[in-house]
Structure of 3'(2'),5'-bisphosphate nucleotidase CysQ:
Amino acid sequence: MDYEKLVSVMRRLSLEAGDKIMEIYGQDDFDVKTKSDDSPVTAADEAADAIISSGLRAAFPDVMLVTEEQSATHDASGDTFLIVDPLDGTKEFIHRRGDFTVNIALVEGGVPTRGVVYAPAKSRMFFTQADGQSVEETGDLTKDAVGTVRPISVSKADNSGLMVVASKSHRDQATDDYIAQYAVRDMTSAGSSLKFCLVATGEADIYPRLGRTMEWDTAAGHAVLRGAGGDVVRFDDHTPLAYGKPDFANPFFIAFAPSVELKPA
C-alpha cells in the first residue's frame, strides 16, 4: 500500500464528504429514514457515502471496500480492506449536537493501521500520517494541502485519578458499574468516534464501550488511537480488538492509554 497516497486520498475525501454533510446540516429540514436494524439514516449519510466510496474505488480499485451504507459490501470477507462510516453519530447529527464524524480507515491483517476522523461541525481533523504517527491538523483544512499538524499522544495517567469518556447516546448502568471500579478524576461524554480521539490526544484516559458497535464505527478512531500510542482491547478478556470478523460486529471493548491498569470485566 502506498501510504502517502492513501492518507492524502482519505483526508481529501473526508473533507469533501464533510462539506456535503454540513450543507445538509444547514438546511431547515432533512429526511430521516429508518434502516432494517432500526438505526436512522439521512441524506447526509448517503451523500457522504457516495463521495467517499467512489473516490476510494477510483484510487484503490484492487482493495476490498466495506462501507456502512452499502449492505452488499457487508458480505465481503478478508482481513485487509478499506472501511468507511460516512457519518458516524447520525443521532447527534439529527439532534444538531455537532458530535458527528466522517470515518475512513485501512485495516491490514485485522489491525486498523491508518485512519482519518473528521468532525466537520467542530472543525477537528485527526489522522495517521504515512509513517503511522497520529496528528491533529489545525487551521483552514484545505483539500489540496495539509496544513499545520501537531503530533498527538495518549496521556501518562495512572489509576490514581482518571478522565473517563463515555458515549453520549448509549450510556447504561453496566457502563457506570464498570467505571465505578476506577478512581475517576472527571468524566466527559462525546458522540461518535470522537471518543477515541479524546483518548488519543490525552484529553481522556479510558473509554469503555459496553454496547453494540460495528467495525466501521470504530476502525478509524482505533487507527488514530494506535498511532498516538493507545490501544483497544476486548472487554471480556483484554485481547486485541480484531477486524474482519464474519459480520463486522464488535464485542464490547475498552479504548485506553497503556498507562491505565485495566480492571476485570
Q: What stands out?
A: Residues 3-151 form a domain with the Fructose-1,6-Bisphosphatase; Chain A, domain 1 fold (CATH 3.30.540.10). The first helix runs from residue 3 to 25. The radius of gyration is 17 Å.
